[in-house]
Amino acid sequence: MFENRKKEWLRIAHSLKPTLQHETVRPVSGLPGHALTENDSVILDFGNHYVGHLTLKLSSQGSHPDAPAWLSVKFCENERELGETLEGYNGWISKGWVQQEQIHIDVLPTQYSFPRRYAFRYVKIDILALSSKYQLVIEDAVLDATTSADSSRIAPLSGDPLDTAIDRIALRTLHSCMQDFFEDGPKRDRRLWLGDLRLQALTNSVAYQNFDLVKRCLYLFAAVSDADGRIPACLFTEPEVEADDTYMFDYSLFFIPTLWQYAMASGDQETMEDLLPLALRQLELADAQFDPCTHLIQDSDVLGWCFVDWALPLNKQFCAQAIWIYCANAALKMKPDPALKEKIALRKEAAIRHWYDSKQHLFLSGAARQISWASQVWAVLSGIAEGEMASACLNAVSACPDALPMVTPYMMHHYAEALCQVGHRQQARQVIREYWGAMVAQGADTFFELFNPDNPDESPYGSPVVNSFCHAWSCTPSWFLRSGMLNE
Amino acid sequence: MFENRKKEWLRIAHSLKPTLQHETVRPVSGLPGHALTENDSVILDFGNHYVGHLTLKLSSQGSHPDAPAWLSVKFCENERELGETLEGYNGWISKGWVQQEQIHIDVLPTQYSFPRRYAFRYVKIDILALSSKYQLVIEDAVLDATTSADSSRIAPLSGDPLDTAIDRIALRTLHSCMQDFFEDGPKRDRRLWLGDLRLQALTNSVAYQNFDLVKRCLYLFAAVSDADGRIPACLFTEPEVEADDTYMFDYSLFFIPTLWQYAMASGDQETMEDLLPLALRQLELADAQFDPCTHLIQDSDVLGWCFVDWALPLNKQFCAQAIWIYCANAALKMKPDPALKEKIALRKEAAIRHWYDSKQHLFLSGAARQISWASQVWAVLSGIAEGEMASACLNAVSACPDALPMVTPYMMHHYAEALCQVGHRQQARQVIREYWGAMVAQGADTFFELFNPDNPDESPYGSPVVNSFCHAWSCTPSWFLRSGMLNE
Question: Which of A312, A330, A178, A151 lies closest to A254 in space, CA to CA?
């Protein structure tokens, strides 16, 4: 489907490729005042999180260097990473993501420019080898930092110091992720994921307002939709624009609210109309997952068939049904459709009938009737639960210690949004101040991909060494703080 | 001294910088026919020793690569190095010399060109990390090999298979060391040492006959002579031409026979006359080391004050006296000088009187009156021992099991030359066939810096991992075989 449109969609995406802004940055501390010998170690601190290319200006002291200098160089997004090691790492995400290099310097003095881009605040340099005849001098370290976020478009918030700190760090997170496209994380995966894009676009709409970048990303996804019109969960832009072979039920559907939200924020009706048939196609494709008699979605045991949150034990059946409804509601806003409206109503009723435990005031999920925070949040956001029922299930899950918890800032965003939707704006503010505030207390310059306040070492990958500490989906506190959502 | 000449000498050296010849080389074996996964390991064999820049053509199989490929790449001059590791290496030569890199590949397919030059036959590639979603394909490996040796100028020797093998490998050694200048070793030190240059120039004169390269190197040394006119043991050409701060008694003096040998081989009288005053200055400077009454050279306990051989326990006093005489004899050939002739005679007599043990027919050295092979060799080469005495001391040392042995091909060259000088040409041939032939038997493609047939792990540096397996001073068998020296 849409085969005759894809070339044009790709052309539009390419035409919107941003010219990156460059900033030259030097370390605020750590440049050693003395010459270094073998086994010395230095930590440069650039004072904030940046994304870009580093150049080291190196010279020598002592005799003319008579052997190559061999350095290990590690780029870290936060201070904790400095002490982490790959020894024994056996997680399922590639070690290749860890930003560490070994380099040899044959001729001194020199300016060594790292060929790769890194996301970091700290640079740890270990001198693996010199000869005894000379010492190494790090004269300077110059970072060419890039972004497609125009900071001149926003002023810092004033007011409560924690709120302003959270906003500043959330904006920095988005700032570092805004490059040629909205990256999920500039350390990892450096890729365009639809779930991340949706939240980035939301925050962008009240901050940097680079609407062309959102439009570019929408067209990138459109251009790589498959022969059935299905939109992949993520895509690659190098060496050529190409879909990842990962498809997730919720991410494909999120193209719909992302398109709608973009059109609302930018006023760009033309793009909305151009991409609407593709957006609506995602609803049709999702229909195959529903039982036409019970109006219930099929469960699946395929890992990641529907993302929702980074919680492996989470049963996704209820959330998937709710997310379909959430996205269908967004579609209705773009184009009235009585048949769709009727379908939504049937699927809402079925969800309540089948999964609502009216004694506990909780929505259950799956054959094992799992109780999770995620299910209550999506019950509210989808409108399955409205009014009293909506408040009741959010209250009930707070009082249910066995409910499966939320593990990502991505899911926490939806929780805070659900609280706002039921009018618990003060509680939403508190959630943001407690959860994101705990990252502030840990010295975050950007917000993390994963954060469990009770276990800083938590990682779904086997070790935090491959975690991303600047992750797009964590940037939404600025949306809450700047959109007026939290105001009573 | 010579301050008004050095700029011009440097200009001449620069004007003779060679245009390197390029050859495109591909592996003869090892390119895997299948895609590679994490922890896979591959050894590419280029079939011979080369010096140059490698490009890997890489692609992927499976899903679109979703994480960087992280590779360890080790360049080895010979097969034994493939199994060596830096773990626990604590020698005094820098680990920085070991030709191993770690690289990350962010985008596939790609052509990755290593920025550094390597000397190698084998390339070991270990896949440190991929993701589980894709496999790495090494499509091709293309080496841009360089040399300033013109192979079209020489034909292979015919005759005895061992002799021809030794000649071929010796020429390959020289070939790999001939780059912008005569390097001592293209793996290590990649530098111009006078002791190596002398033997390279000798072999070059009967092989590639790139006399301009010899001339360039003579002028490079001239240009970096110090304020007293002293020539350093070695020099650097990058980032600017500069003397190393290493001065060795014998290496400074070897400028004289190197200049004379160059003039004889090339017929370039002009260069000889231009540089003769500087050459003679080395004799004058050496005079400070001699006792004017006894005509004996002072001993020294400074490590490396006079090189002779890579044998730390070797006492250098006698050899230093002999090398002065050897070089003074070369000076006489360039310019008659009765006073110098007289001085040579006095120092010869003094050496015999003081160090010759006429009962043992051996020359001793130092306060401890050490017996070494090196002393006998230099007694002969210098002419201190002539006729019967010369044969006698070479015979005597063979029969003296306690004599300190020779440890380098450099010293073995001088032994073979001394044998020729006393007419034992058959024995010289035998030495070459046994010593260099043992390296051939070990599968050498080039001859090593250090070789003890009884202990392949021997290294003066603490581990063979930093040894050079293609070393200029080992190339002289071709001089013996091609100059007619060995013919009765």
Answer: A330
* Domain co-membership, B251 together with B186: yes
* Cα separation, A64 vs B233, whole angstroms: 14
Same domain, A35 and A119: yes
* Pair B201, B227 in one domain: yes
Written as one string, the DSSP assignment of A415-473 is: HHHHHHHTT-HHHHHHHHHHHHHHHHHTT-SS--S---TT-TT--TTSSGGG--SS-GG
Whether A86 contacts chain B with CB within 8 A:
no
What is the distance between the alpha carbons of residues B169 and B181, in angstroms, rounded to a whole number? 20
Whole-angstrom Cα distance, residue A328 to residue A334?
A: 10
Asked if residue B172 and residue B319 are part of one domain, the reply reads yes
Asked if residue A137 and residue A162 are part of one domain, the reply reads: no
Q: What is the ipTM of this complex?
A: 0.96
Task: List, edge to edge, every strand of the sheet that includes A242-243.
Answer: A192-193, A234-236, A242-243
pLDDT, one tens digit for every residue, chain B (488 residues): 899 999 999 999 999 999 999 999 999 999 999 999 999 999 999 999 999 999 999 999 999 999 999 999 999 999 989 998 888 888 889 999 999 999 999 999 999 999 999 999 999 999 999 999 999 999 999 999 999 999 999 999 999 999 999 999 999 999 999 999 999 999 999 999 999 999 999 999 999 999 999 999 999 999 999 999 999 999 999 999 999 999 999 999 999 999 999 999 999 999 999 999 999 999 999 999 999 999 999 999 898 899 999 999 999 999 999 999 999 999 999 999 999 999 999 999 999 999 999 999 999 999 999 999 999 999 999 999 999 999 999 999 999 999 999 999 999 999 999 999 999 999 999 999 999 999 999 999 999 999 998 887 788 888 888 999 999 999 999 999 999 999 87
CA–CA min distance A427, chain B (Å):
39
Give A96's contacts in chain B (Cβ within 8 Å). Answer: 67-70, 104, 128-131
Structural domains counted in chain B:
2
Predicted TM-score (pTM) above 0.90: yes
Residue of chain A whose Cα is closest to the Cα of B191: A66
Residue A5 lies in a domain: no
Chain A positions in Cβ-Cβ contact with residue B66 (cut-off 8 Å): 189, 191, 236, 244
Q: Which domain holds residue A476?
A: 157-483
Q: Are B219 and B98 part of one and the same domain?
A: no
Residues B162 and B126 in one domain: no
Regarding whether B277 and B410 lie in a shared domain, the answer is: yes
